[in-house]
Amino acid sequence: MKYPVTLGVVCLARTTYDYTAAEEIYAKIRSELRHLEGVTWYCLEPLVISQEDGLAAAKELATKQIDGLVCISGTFHLGHLVLQLKRELPVPILLWGLPELPYNGGKIRLNSVCGVNLNASNLYKSGYDDYTVIVQHTIDEDWVDAIRVIKAMKMAKIGILGYRADGFFNVGVQDNLLYGQTGALVDHYELKDVHEYPVTEAQVSSRMQQIRETFDVSTLSAYQLDRVVQLAAKLDAFYHEMNLSALAIRCWPEFARDFGVSPCAAMSLLQSEGMILACEGDIDGALSMIAHHALGAETPFLFDFSQVDFQQDFALFWHCGVAPCNLWDGTCNRSLDTYFAGGKGVTADFVLKSGELSVLRIDSARGGYRMFLQKATAVPMEKLLKGTYMKARFERPVKEVLDLVLDNGLAHHSSVVYGTYIRPLELVAKLKGWKVIQ
């Protein structure tokens, strides 16, 4: 399910052009827009022609709390109009030009593209970069999806449980920079807030049945299994009670020592249900998963670039055993195991399914934000390791991808999802003024 947004729409025109044709085109567009998932539309039906129209449209839309504005150049129009709208509506704008109609009597009928050019120039020279331009018959759904991501980040409440993992300075964030760049707010909780969170016997019993049905738990002791089950129930209840968009967890070194097991197995289960849980206190990693989720991508998760093979040209996307269990390849034994932390490191163990992948890291560095984007493909492999992992091949040599990561000092986690989710995020970066590392 894509993140819901509210969008305003206006159609600009001038009576010296074929504004009646523009009205007909605009009516058709309004009808087609209704079919987009998760969008509340405020379409102002009369054409916006005069300066008085522009002021009235801006004031009306300012009452609707829109997340983005679609400005259709039905014909060429006054340059005042978009600037009047922008003054009242500090949101990203889609400048939409219409393909020219067949000539009629030797006169250009719409001159829409010139109107778009006028608007883009006026916005740019006024210092605004948060506009996108199209010339086509239908709306740019990637732009709509970009607005979903921006809204999801703006509304995000990210919890951090404990702190970042010991020594992982590179996943630390500056809270005010994060807020200034995205609108996301961070709330801090102690590990014991989850460890001691009360849950009912019914909640625990339900989780016990679910975990036994999902994983091979034959290597676990009764104590270890109970701790995993208790933690799944506690994390679930805590996450929803605090109304979190995501939770970044200091999952080591104290977690297993104080609770009895690491959180990996419980996180695998809960992420399969749509909860956004980030390892090692990685708040920017959580933000990256929020962005993927806003696009409708299912169960994003964080991975490490744990191995690269330059000869066979692949990377191993691995983590200690936290990937969502619904992404299992359906072939290997999906199990829980205790291969680290002296038997307290209970993790999920399985190979992830094959398919097209999109990789994203929204990353803070040197006083700003940037975005790392790649497409890859997960290919079949045998279950050879503990933890959760996949073999991935990129559209370019893996060495080039690794060089991008290292030369730009990116943090060692990225969010990965199945499917292609690239262009909407490129538009997000453009609208936010972030560098794209690609």
Q: Can you characterise this structure?
A:
With 438 residues, the protein is an alpha/beta fold. 36% of the residues lie in helices and 25% in strands. It is built from 14 helices and 18 strands. It has helices at 19-33, 51-62, 80-88, 112-125, 141-154, 175-182, 191-195, 201-214, 222-241, 254-259, 264-271, 283-294, 398-407, 423-432, and strands spanning 5-12, 39-43, 68-73, 93-97, 131-135, 157-161, 185-189, 246-249, 277-278, 301-309, 314-319, 335-338, 346-351, 355-365, 368-379, 388-394, 413-418, 435-437. The strands form three sheets. Strands 10-11-16-15-14-17 form a six-stranded antiparallel β-barrel, surrounded by four helices. Strand 14 and strand 15 (368-379) form a beta hairpin. The two termini are 27 Å apart. The model has no long low-confidence stretch (mean pLDDT 97).
Largest sheet: 6 strands, antiparallel, barrel
How far is it from the N-terminal to the C-terminal residue, by CA? 27 Å
Kindly report the name of the CATH homologous superfamily of the largest domain.
Answer: L-fucose Isomerase, Chain A, domain 2
CATH topology of the largest domain: L-fucose Isomerase, Chain A, domain 2
The low-pLDDT segments are none
Task: Output the strand order for the largest sheet.
Answer: 10-11-16-15-14-17
Count of runs of 4 or more consecutive helical residues: 14
Count of extended strands = 18
CATH class of the largest domain: Alpha Beta
Number of domains: 2
Shape: elongated
Estimate the mean pLDDT confidence: 97
Assess the beta-strand content as a share of residues: 15-25%
* Helical content class: 25-40%
CATH-level-2 architecture of the largest domain: 3-Layer(aba) Sandwich
Class based on secondary structure composition and strand pairing? alpha/beta
What value does the Rg take, in angstroms?
25 Å
